[in-house]
Write a structure and sequence with these properties.
The chain is α/β, with parallel strands linked by helices and 199 residues long. It has a single domain, classed as Rossmann fold (3-Layer(aba) Sandwich), CATH 3.40.50.300. The chain has five helices and seven strands, in the order E-E-H-E-E-H-E-H-E-H-E-H. A seven-stranded mixed β-sheet has the order 1-3-4-2-5-6-7, sandwiched between helices. It comes from Silvibacterium bohemicum.
Length: 199
């Protein structure tokens, strides 16, 4: 899918969030899960900064998404949330969650879908399970997206999918690769479907 995207704002508090007028898709995951790479692959441009140092995102970064650069009003926002689970910064990130991340996930009226990114190459992580349980408790629609699937063989992908679904207690899981584009079409279809649902 061809889209036009533009960086909107880095928000450090609910007061800085854009006005809740259009559907929003939240991207969540551990600091080294490949979140920025997946965002850029979906957008077809390098909007999100890919860093060699995990945990650089310390705010919620909003991007406006349209299907044409001529369209004046964005059709949806992508919200890139801070990563978690990286030992050196996990305490500082955890301290920030109650200030603006939890209010966003709990209270944002236009949040249409949460994409929980997990690494397909490692076993289910407690921090990922904790996030998924938290989102289930909020009643938010969510999809678990397993990144870096290009590093697995066909048989390895099947095994990883089963292990992750069992370990994270989810019925659905989408394997994706920012490098090869595998799964991106299906992910876009899920995003568009969620954005089309009435709030």
């Amino acid at each position: 899918m061809r889209v036009h995207s533009q960086f909107l704002i880095s928000a450090h508090s609910p007061e800085q969030f854009p006005a809740p007028a259009i559907p929003e898709i939240a991207f969540l995951g551990r600091s080294n899960v490949g979140k920025s790479s997946l965002l850029n692959a979906l957008l077809g441009s390098k909007q999100a900064k890919v860093s060699s140092t995990p945990g650089r995102t310390r705010s919620i970064n909003f991007f406006s998404i349209t299907d044409s650069p001529q369209r004046q009003q964005p059709q949806m926002y992508f919200a890139d949330l801070p990563g978690y689970g990286y030992a050196k910064i996990s305490k500082s990130i955890s301290a920030e969650w109650p200030k603006f991340i939890e209010p966003y996930l709990h209270e944002r009226p236009t949040l249409a879908l949460c994409l929980c990114l997990v690494d397909s190459n490692i076993p289910p992580q407690p921090s990922d399970a904790q996030l998924i349980d938290f989102l289930k408790s909020t009643g938010r629609p969510l999809i678990v997206v397993a990144t870096k699937a290009d590093k697995l063989s066909g048989n390895g992908r099947t095994k990883a999918q089963i292990a992750l679904q069992r370990g994270l207690d989810v019925e659905q899981l989408l394997l994706c690769s920012a490098k090869t584009g595998a799964g991106l079409k299906e992910l876009w279809a899920a995003i568009q479907s969620a954005a089309a649902e009435p709030a």
